[in-house]
Amino acid sequence: MQLNSVTEMLAITNYKVKHIVHHSEKRIDLLLNRIEEAPSVCSGCGKVHYTPVHSTDTVIVEDLPISGKRVFLHVPKRRSLCHEDERIRTEELEWLRGRVTRRFAEQIYRLTSITTNKEAGWFLGLDDEKVYRIDKGMLEELSLQRLEKVTPPRHMSVDEVAWQKWHKYVTNVIDVDKRKVIWNHEGRGKTVLDKFYHKLGKEGRGKVRAVASDGARGFLSSTKEHLKKAVIVLDHFHVKKYLNDAVDTVRKEELRKARQQENKELAAILHCNKRFILMQNKVTEKKTDILEKLESLNERVYQAMLLKEQFLSVYTAGNRKDAYANLRAWISAAIKSQIPSLVELGYKFFRKRHYVLNYFVCKITSAISEGINNKIKRLKRMAYGYRDVKYFLLKIHQHCGLLSPKLST
To answer: Do residues 159 and 374 lie in contact, with contact meaning Cβ atoms separated by under 8 Å?
Structure first.
């Protein structure tokens, strides 16, 4: 094997292959030598020092494979006196990241964006703990470049997702237009979202035109405080979810009564296997048949289902004025129904009616947030959970945000 050819193939500035230390079917070790002497960069203070060399050590670092063989480079590193702390420090080489080359670290970072650390480690022949350290280091370095300054979104969505049991959450802010996570933080509620708005600054907050939210009190409070001119939209997918939950509560109550009274016909209709037919928004033959039976068997569930169908007229209205009339009529009907879950929902929609109707001012939703939440849950399942929340936040940006390797290709 020609050493000059190997040197050209490695393409490491100011270094050449002196000789091959070891060569087998699975591994090749190469001893590098510096071509020209240059001032060393101190690993302690990061400055260039011109002090005499104290000693030279040889470190073994791994590089990208060649022809399926793992490549290990034996790199001489100088040690010299640091003027800042008066200690002997090893020089820092810009093409290295610890005990691997920078390009190999980038390969690991790209690989962990499509699979788990354990699988990436198996593929590369590395311990998964080493993969974790390299991947986290790369993500932290990239975060300083891409996440330190937040570009104000024109339309944004706010949502939360659990990262561990016992109500441990992270809050994600999504740019609806870019469809990317642009900021996240451990915790949830007003104090967490306040940090995002403070990071945007006064000028940045002025550029936000609309915010889609699930109606959480803390998110609404923070947004009203910091975004005086932005439109707050109560996401219609969450609105319909609240409605479905209220109707499902009625179904469960009546199913329990039917079983106690041994009303098998009603119990069969209200059983959980018919739940998806009852909850779907589209009118189908199966749903129509069930409603016709409910009309004679159970007035309470039938009334709840009619209120659910009536509410859909709010979003089919052509404009905000008609939608307001439909919503007002629905709230009145829900309160008069005397069904506790729907009465409670009626008052809730009355308090948040402006946010519901703002959908007709700016038709944005948090649908992208729900899609990203599913990706985050999948990411968490693949790794069997995360113990390091800071690493988890960075992984969210890697898979769903601005740290994705796809953005640099």
So the answer is: no
